[in-house]
Design goal:
Blueprint lengths: L14 H7 L4 E6 L4 E5 L1 H8 L3 E2 L11 E2 L1 H9 L3 E7 L9 E9 L5 E10 H50 L4 H9 L9 E7 L5 E3 L10 H6 L14 H5 L5 E3 L4 H8 L2 H10 L4 E8 L2 E9 L9 H67 L8 H31 L8 E4 H11 L1 H6 L3 E3 L8 E4 L1 H18 L5 E8 L3 E8 L33 H11 L3 E7 L3 E9 L23
Parallel strand pairs: 3-4, 14-16
Antiparallel strand pairs: 1-2, 1-7, 5-6, 6-7, 8-9, 8-12, 10-11, 11-12, 13-15, 16-17, 17-19, 18-19
Helix pairs in contact: 4-10, 5-10, 8-9, 10-11, 11-15, 12-14, 14-15
Length: 592
């Protein structure tokens, strides 16, 4: 594209020219201090032709033209360039154009050429308006981001504060420690502190000693926990505030409410002496019942509490209320447990004392019966021998019952000692079978076992194991009808050993199977159905079994019979596997 000459001056050509021709503003290039016009695009040429502008020291232009020459002189000689300079025409006509000038230097740094841009002044004003709008938008965005960052930081601080205080509350269930933790409560805002009032079990309101962040003012804060003489004249005192379950903010002007919270005029004067900006009162609510109140105090001169601080204070109050309730329940439970332990110890001591007191005269009765039966005091008839035998049998029964009671009291108080060692379960069964053979025969029962070829070794107390077996065999003798069978077995699998006593008596209903192990329980309640005893034999037997690291289990079917299995460890704890004798596979109790 060829650019025609402007006022007889040569023009430049090329691809840059092609782009400049399409520019919506006037573009020109001048050379030297006389501002010889080297190039002008279409818009610039049109402005020259219309007499809107004039350039160069060439005799001037139209009278009303806006002369760019003074501006170009200034740019050429004194500045690095000019931006958006207003170019006014001669006379009083309003300015229509702005001009921007860039200097182009040669290799030695001297100005050679000027690049000129002429723009309609309305375009410049619009650009500045748009620039201001963009600047304002960017500024508002930056402020918004700053506020958001500050809010996020504050929210993080509140969350950390809440989590940290919750952790402190969870450390202990002791009521005194919990209250001490709560009285140190604050909000994240610097200088805040808290007054804590709690409702005691008797309904009285107690104020915990406050903690002030300023040690100098701590002495004044201590006075707030001391009931002031005039607090009795305040109807309801703090309890009036407790009627509300919603947080409230009190300013220094709220005299009546401040008096209630402070606990009297004197306490209010102390609070004003300490100084405060506002009070945030948050009730401690548990199960819809107000159990106290937290009063957060802001520093003097500070702004009131924000919505976020009220929400945080409510969360803190909820956790404090729950912690106080849990601590109270724990204290009450501990009190009941100690009372129960004391009562249990008293019961056990009474049983032990009575057992010893009863055994002494019963032993004397048995001794005199034997002397009389031997004829020491004179001849004894056959009927008298029979009567003396009955006395002796009942004396032995009473001694057995007393022994059961004494054993139960010892187990219940944890005073039973075990002499643990390796024992033969077959030998223990055989000893008991021989000892009770008379009772089994007299009842008309048949005994099977223990098999002489089957044995198992257990780690247990031999005397306690025999005591358990005696109880189980005597139970089987009691409840098995004449002509029935009692079976004695033992065995093991290398990890556990067992003794099993089975009978074909009436059986036990499944719903009552576990009750037979409870103390003083007998399944038959009628006098005609009772078989003697106080219902402690199975209780003692299971407790002894568990004391040796084993257990006592029962299986029964009504009309078929019952089976009791004593399970014991095969070897001492920590011993190597396989160090104990292994029982035959046939002796392992079947899985059920």
């Amino acid at each position: 594209m060829t650019n025609p000459a402007v006022h007889g001056h040569p023009v430049i050509h090329g691809s840059v020219e092609d782009h400049l021709e399409l520019a919506p503003v006037g573009i020109a290039v001048t050379a030297g201090p006389k501002h010889k016009l080297l190039y002008a695009n279409g818009v610039f040429r049109a402005l020259l032709a219309a007499g809107e502008i004039t350039v160069g020291h060439n005799g001037g232009g139209p009278r009303m033209a806006a002369d760019l020459t003074p501006l170009l002189d200034r740019a050429f000689e004194h500045t690095q360039g000019l931006s958006d300079e207003i170019v006014a025409p001669a006379g009083t006509s309003p300015a229509k154009w702005t001009c921007t000038v860039w200097r182009v230097r040669d290799a030695h740094g001297s100005p050679e050429e000027l690049v000129i841009e002429v723009r309609d002044i309305s375009q410049s004003e619009g650009a500045r308006t748009r620039q201001r709008a963009i600047t304002e938008r960017l500024l508002l965005g930056a402020l918004h981001d700053q506020d958001a960052a500050r809010d996020a930081e504050e929210e993080s601080r509140r969350a950390v504060h809440l989590a940290d205080f919750s952790r402190k509350l969870s450390i202990s269930l002791d009521e005194a420690e919990t209250r001490d933790t709560i009285r140190h409560l604050t909000l994240p805002r610097r200088g805040t502190w808290c007054i804590v009032d709690v409702v005691e079990s008797n309904g009285a309101v107690r104020r915990l000693p406050p903690i002030h962040p300023d040690p100098v003012k701590q002495a004044l804060a201590d006075r707030l926990a001391i009931p002031s003489p005039d607090s009795a004249g305040v109807p309801g005192g703090t309890r009036s505030i407790l009627a509300s379950i919603q947080p409230m903010i009190l300013t220094p002007e709220a005299d009546r409410a401040l008096t209630l919270i402070a606990g009297g005029e004197e306490s209010l004067r102390t609070l004003r002496e300490i100084g405060f900006g506002a009070l945030l009162v948050v009730p401690l609510v548990v199960h819809a019942k107000v159990e106290g109140v937290l009063t957060f105090v802001s520093p003097k001169g500070e702004h009131s509490f924000s919505v976020e601080e009220v929400a945080l204070a409510s969360d803190l109050a909820s956790r404090c209320a729950l912690a106080l309730e849990n601590a109270r329940l724990y204290r009450e439970a501990e009190t009941l447990r100690l009372a129960a332990d004391l009562a249990n110890e008293s019961k056990s001591e009474f049983l032990r004392s009575m057992s010893h007191e009863l055994r002494t005269p019963l032993n004397a009765i048995g001794g005199f019966v034997e002397l009389i039966d031997m004829g020491i005091s004179g001849p004894v008839t056959e009927k008298q021998h029979e009567a003396l035998g009955r006395i002796k049998a009942n004396q032995n029964l009473l001694l057995t019952l007393i022994t059961d009671v004494l054993s139960f009291s010892r187990i219940d108080s944890g005073r039973v000692e075990y002499q643990m060692k390796e024992i033969s379960l077959r030998r223990a069964l055989a000893d008991v079978a021989e000892m009770l053979s008379g009772a089994i025969t007299d009842k008309g029962l048949r005994r099977e076992g223990p098999r002489p070829d089957v044995d198992a070794t257990a780690w247990a107390d031999a005397d306690r194991v025999r005591q358990i077996i005696v109880n189980l065999v005597m139970n089987a003798v009691k409840y098995t009808p004449k002509g029935g069978t009692i079976t004695l077995e033992c065995g093991g699998d290398g990890n556990q050993s067992f003794v099993r006593i089975s009978d074909n008596g009436p059986g036990i209903p499944a719903a009552k199977l576990e009750r037979i192990f409870e103390p003083f329980v007998q399944l038959t309640t009628g006098l005609a159905d009772r078989h003697g005893g106080v219902g402690l034999g199975l209780t003692i037997s299971r407790d002894l079994a568990r004391g040796m690291g084993g257990d006592l289990e029962a299986k029964s079917s009504v009309g078929v019979g019952s089976r009791f299995t004593l399970v014991l460890p095969s070897r001492a704890p920590g011993s190597l596997h396989g160090s104990q004798p292994q029982a035959p596979a046939s002796s392992v109790p079947p899985k059920e």
